[in-house]
Write a structure and sequence with these properties.
307 residues, alpha/beta, UDP-N-acetylmuramoyl-L-alanine:D-glutamate ligase, nine-stranded mixed β-sheet, 10 helices, kinase activity
Length: 307
């Protein structure tokens, strides 16, 4: 069977309104004067992964429900302008949107509008199967309709990855994604014992690799029953925003995996891509390119050998 798509991204399309705040948490006040301002742009987790793997030269296709509204046009224009294939299914409740409060140190607080999704929202099964059958790999966002697509994806035989984001290790909503994927990403932010949660994912699901990202502390990789700490990579320019760093890490990791690299090297790709994302203002949607990624990884590996 022809595999014309390297990475099929399901879900996670939407629009963010970026609000720069003087500090986080934000103390109560009647009003704040905001600089550099407030800006709305297309780009949520699925968009960022699609942009990330596309920038690394992987043939990419994005599938999601998107509204017939101004925000939906922003999402469509983003994909059109970047040359990323998009199959959009009408979302009656409108395009997903969020507000991101971004502090001076680049930390963010995201407020997601849950009113856009409906209980009946589904990705068409035939579309899911057709695209998955043409793909080498599928990355599944944890947005509501994607949970119902997991059985059809598994039946096509395509390998799966997912990002559980700030899962606490207990919320049952995340479990179908965690247990269906071959590669699982998550943040260590809400985990009291990351290794225990990571090993439980492997024991209860089918994951071959689990990665827990930990910001400036790097990441933790569980592969072949071995736990490894992956050091953070210092970005070349100052950190301005952490939004999208986890998505960039996943993109870099998947690039390595689809090119046959071992898990530790894939994680290094992810660390470099994630560090680059932290230097990109939240109002932009730029991802690291293939040549820059490989060059930076070579530098990091050379430095680790000399030390």
């Amino acid at each position: 069977m022809s595999r014309d798509i390297d990475v099929l991204v399901l879900g996670g399309a939407g629009v963010d309104t970026i609000v720069h705040v003087p500090e986080l948490p934000l103390p109560f006040a009647d009003s704040y004067m905001i600089r550099p301002g407030i800006e709305t742009r297309a780009g949520q987790t699925g968009d960022f992964v699609a942009l990330g793997v596309h920038a690394l030269g992987l043939r990419t296709h994005h599938l999601d429900l998107i509204g017939d509204d101004h925000e939906g046009e922003l999402v469509r224009a983003l994909h059109r302008d970047r040359g990323i294939a998009l199959t959009d299914v009408l979302q009656p409740g409108g395009t997903k949107r969020a507000v991101n409060l971004v502090g001076p140190d680049g930390r963010r607080l995201s407020l997601y509008d849950e009113s856009r999704s409906r209980e009946s929202d589904r990705l068409p099964e035939e579309t899911v199967r057709t695209l998955a059958a043409a793909s080498r790999h599928a990355h599944v966002s944890i947005t509501y309709p994607c949970a119902f697509a997991l059985p059809a994806l598994r039946e096509t035989g395509v390998t799966l990855s997912t990002d559980l984001h700030d899962w606490d290790g207990a919320n049952p909503y995340h479990e179908p994604f965690a247990h269906a994927a071959d590669v699982v990403f998550l943040s260590a932010t809400a985990l009291t014992d990351p290794e225990r949660t990571m090993r439980r994912i492997v024991e209860r699901g089918r994951a071959e690799v689990v990665v827990a990202t930990a910001g400036a502390d790097g990441a933790y990789l569980l592969a072949d029953d071995e736990m490894t700490h992956i050091p953070a990579v210092a970005p070349r320019t100052p950190v301005v925003d952490t939004n999208g760093a986890g998505d960039a890490f996943a993109s870099g990791f998947l690039f390595g995996r689809l090119n046959g690299e071992p898990p530790k090297r894939c994680a290094r790709y992810g660390a470099v891509a994630g560090a680059h994302a932290c230097t990109v203002p939240s109002t932009r949607t730029d991802a690291i390119g293939r040549d820059e990624l490989l060059s930076r990884v070579a530098e990091v590996e050379s430095a680790s050998v000399t030390h």
